[in-house]
UniProtKB/TrEMBL annotation:
This is Purine nucleoside phosphorylase. Phosphate binds at S41, H77, R99, F100, H101, A131, S235. It catalyses: a purine D-ribonucleoside + phosphate = a purine nucleobase + alpha-D-ribose 1-phosphate. Pathway: Purine metabolism; purine nucleoside salvage. InterPro entries: Nucleoside_phosphorylase_d, Nucleoside_phosphorylase_sf, Purine_phosphorylase. Keywords: Glycosyltransferase, Transferase. Its EC number is 2.4.2.1. One of its GO terms (molecular function) is inosine nucleosidase activity.
Length: 315
């Protein structure tokens, strides 16, 4: 939520859009991108696929040089916008190499600021990627999940990206989200995976948004399964909500980088009654870490890059 009035907020978005157009002035074909791609943890290499030769140009702009943009502080998030053309149809795109997270101390207004700026530039589609924990017990590390729905846990408790005076310029006060993840785009993505003959497992499921920065406890993991979540992460949903508020069509991809621990912790009482020593119990086995997330993302990144490149080239 911003303390600025809707008119003042719109002025901030317009200022950032105008700044970007200035950087892109020598390359007018890039001034109106069709697709915004948000690169999740370890997936910044997506921007390396943008064409660069005598015909097609590639322009990188640091977040610190754009009014209203924050700088991400999380490893795996570089903090730059990259403009260029992607795929067989040379679709004009802008890539966010690094995103902002609520747990970093940013407001939802700052976290989603680039989405509204992208809308002012003419973006019609959002392709959002993330690294996520596998809640569904059939998911394996390295699998991909196409998001078909989400649970906005902070939002249900009032921490919502559309909280505050509505920005009528972009969208309605009361936004339905039953169609948040476009069916036709999801269908096209599965078509793309078939044509590429990818060997990696690709699922379709529900993404649970938890604000982080801690990974979930064992009891929380069991709760997520009970609520119907298939994957859990610390981003994406605020961006999707604002993109839908702006009228963009959305496709979301989660790269499963670890399996959550949902079994109950070892009982100290039972261990003691059996006469076992506590040193025999290892509570860290299978525990998630950000290093593991980045390592898993890097190992599967090539398939994700191929899939996104082919898919975006069909838009």
């Amino acid at each position: 939520m911003s303390e600025l009035s809707p008119e003042e907020q719109l002025h901030e978005f317009q200022l950032a859009a105008s700044c970007l157009k200035g950087y892109l002035q020598p390359h007018t074909e890039l001034q109106k991108p069709k697709v915004l791609i948000i690169c999740g943890s370890g997936l910044g290499g997506l921007s390396s696929l943008l064409k660069e030769d005598e015909t097609y140009h590639r322009v990188s702009i640091k977040y610190k040089d754009i009014p209203g943009f924050k700088e991400p502080k999380v490893p795996g998030h570089n903090g730059e916008l990259v403009f260029g053309h992607l795929g067989g149809n040379a679709t004009p795109v802008m890539c966010m190499v690094g995103r902002f997270h609520y747990y970093e101390g940013h407001s939802f207004y700052s976290n989603t600021f680039p989405i509204r700026v992208a809308k002012l530039l003419g973006v019609e589609y959002l392709v959002v990627t993330n690294a996520a924990g596998g809640v569904n017990e059939t998911y394996k590390t390295g699998d991909i999940m196409v998001i078909n729905d989400h649970i906005n846990f902070p939002g249900l408790a009032g921490q919502h990206p559309l909280r505050g005076l509505n920005l009528d310029y972009f969208g309605p006060r009361f936004l339905p989200l039953s169609d948040a993840y476009d069916f036709h785009l999801r269908y096209a993505l599965f078509e793309a995976s078939q044509k590429l003959e990818l060997k990696r497992s690709i699922h379709e499921g529900t993404y649970f948004y938890a604000s982080g920065p801690t990974f979930e406890s064992r009891a929380e993991c069991r709760m997520l399964r009970f609520l119907g979540a298939d994957a859990v992460g610390m981003s994406t949903v605020p961006e999707v909500i604002v993109a839908r508020h702006c009228g963009m069509k959305v496709i979301g991809l989660s790269l499963i980088t670890n399996s959550v621990l949902g079994d109950k912790p070892a009982s100290a009482k039972e261990t003691c009654l059996r006469g076992d020593t506590y040193t025999a119990v290892d509570q860290t086995k299978g525990m998630a870490s950000h290093a593991e997330v980045l390592e898993s993302a890097n190992s599967a990144a090539e398939d994700v890059k191929s899939l996104v490149e082919y898919f975006v080239g069909t838009l």
